[in-house]
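Input (structure):
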């Protein structure tokens, strides 16, 4: 049930998902949301957080640092973590 309701999350960009997550936090902190609705939006928040985590991990995997030769010229790239 919750998984089906959150299928649209997979199509969101990082920025869209983060904006939606921030709105959920504001709504929950306000404290005037009914319990059943709080549970639904909390579950959506969990889906949004997981999606943001996946997108961040994918971005981190793409980040590379430039290797320099002794004279300071770029000679290639390597993973940011050195692996």
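Output (sequence):
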């Amino acid at each position: 049930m919750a998984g089906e309701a959150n299928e649209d999350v997979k199509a969101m960009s990082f920025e869209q998902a983060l904006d939606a997550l921030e709105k959920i936090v504001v709504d929950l902190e306000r404290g005037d949301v009914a319990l059943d609705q709080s549970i639904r939006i909390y579950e959506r928040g969990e889906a949004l957080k997981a999606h943001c985590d996946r997108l961040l991990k994918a971005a981190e995997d793409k980040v590379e640092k430039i290797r320099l030769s002794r004279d300071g010229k770029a000679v290639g790239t390597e993973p940011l973590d050195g692996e």
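Notes: Helices lie at 2-5, 14-30, 35-62. The chain has a mean pLDDT of 85.
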